[in-house]
Specification:
This protein is of the alpha+beta class. Helix content is 32%, strand content 25%.
């Protein structure tokens, strides 16, 4: 499986640069083992949870990334800079874990889109998020 994976994705049209054997092993393990989740909480002065970041870490040929599945701040605490503070602190912590990228998916039509752009996220021009309903 490993060699087929490398052969397929190193060729056109993907042209991935899977040259580090250890990195290939790590990535394939991520796809077959669920021990890569990483979650954070944001707490107030009384240690009450007011936000969270839920996701997982994957290894890629360009380095490690944290994929955020859910990022949230309690509605009553929003628009006070806490989300930006949380994202900044999260980024600092991820750097200590040698994580190079944060990735996520959001809708254009929700406020989170502007929030993420304000916090340094860029839209990918090379990736399409796709979905398909499984027929009944």
């Amino acid at each position: 499986m490993k060699q087929i994976f490398v052969d397929v994705f190193s060729a056109e049209p993907w042209n991935d640069k899977w040259v580090d054997d250890a990195q290939v092993d790590s990535y394939l393990k991520d796809l077959t083992d669920y021990g890569n989740t990483l979650s954070f909480v944001l707490v107030d002065e009384s240690d009450a949870v007011i936000g969270g970041a839920l996701g997982y870490v994957t290894n890629w040929w360009e380095g490690r990334e944290y994929y955020i599945k859910e990022f949230f701040v309690k509605e009553s605490e929003q628009k006070q800079g806490l989300g930006s503070f949380f994202m900044k602190e999260l980024s600092v912590h991820l750097k200590t874990l040698e994580i190079d990228y944060i990735t996520l998916v959001t809708d254009y039509s929700v406020p989170a889109f502007s929030f993420y752009k304000k916090n340094g996220f860029k839209e990918s021009t090379e990736t399409a998020f796709m979905v398909r309903r499984i027929p009944d």
